Amino acid sequence: KEPEATIVEMLKDVTSYEGEDAVFECRLSRETTQDAQWFLGDVPLQSNEMNEIRVQGTRHTLILRKVTLEDCGPISFKVGQHTSAA
């Protein structure tokens, strides 16, 4: 069983205007095959035309494209037992 990854660089709050992209990033202690999941409020996010989810090594990035007022709310990133929110 692989050792658990922890979040070493937490999410930062982002303010953006309607129509802009909002970018959230956090970094893990190591690369992992553990399930990492982004949420807007309680809703799990998937990569699609509105959301881009990227993983580059230990860096996990969420890009919310052309945000609207409906996108306003807490963003959280979870991996294993660890959570970061902005």
TrEMBL record:
InterPro entries on file: Ig-like_dom, Ig-like_dom_sf, Ig-like_fold, Ig_I-set, Obscurin/Obscurin-like_Reg
Subcellular location: Cytoplasm
A GO-annotated cellular component: cytoplasm
Ig-like domain segment(s): 3-86
Main location: cytoplasm
UniProt entry keywords in alphabetical sequence: Cytoplasm, Disulfide bond, Phosphoprotein
Name of this protein: OBSCN protein
Native source species: Caloenas nicobarica (Nicobar pigeon)
